[in-house]
Amino acid sequence: MIAEPEKRKIAVSSHDTDQTVLIRVTEGTQFAQFEAETITAFTNQQFKISKNADRMGLRLEGQPLSVANVPEMLSEATVAGGIQVPKNGQPIVLMADRQTTGGYPVIGVVASVDLPTIAQLVPGQVVRFKMISLTQSQQALADQKAQLKQIKQTFDVLNPKVSRKTATKISRLFR
């Protein structure tokens, strides 16, 4: 008797599924090899998260991006959030279980500050990309860290004993 394949569990997104989610990206390693029209198409259109999205990558659906004039390349290492464009022109955002690029050019890389956001999106949700500089990406991450630090300090001032109690309990777990 053949066992039935496991049904995929549908994730629940913390974002309004009817709203387009704006994701900031920096230039990818092959960014300069893409034509200006392709880069404009990448940043001006909305992409839908495909039902084939998984821990390896979020496959996107939209108007295909042209890779006709991008030269063939060797496979190379990748980073979380790298956005590769295979020959079919449908971008793939590489996620936690990603592999090498497989010779596909990388047009952009999701800003570190937006990685948790894009990772929580579910099939059917719509995203749009905004190009930012590396400096802007670093500043956005620094701003987020400062906000989190401020929240922690506010919590510690309001509830110093609760914070200490929790820390003590957690430290006991590691003894």
TrEMBL record:
Alphabetized, the UniProt keywords read:
ATP-binding, Hydrolase, Nucleotide-binding
Q: Which SUPFAM superfamilies match?
A: Cyclophilin-like (SSF50891)
**Residue ranges of domain Carboxyltransferase in the record:** 1-147
In Pfam terms, one family for this protein is CT_A_B
Family matches, as InterPro entries: CT_A_B, Cyclophilin-like_dom_sf, PxpC
Tell me the domain of life: Bacteria
Q: Which GO terms describe its molecular function?
A: ATP binding; hydrolase activity
Key word Transferase present in the record? Answer: no
Nucleotide-binding keyword on record:
yes
Put simply, this protein is called Allophanate hydrolase 2 subunit 2
Gene source species? Lactiplantibacillus plantarum (Lactobacillus plantarum)
Q: What is the lineage of its organism?
A: Bacteria, Bacillati, Bacillota, Bacilli, Lactobacillales
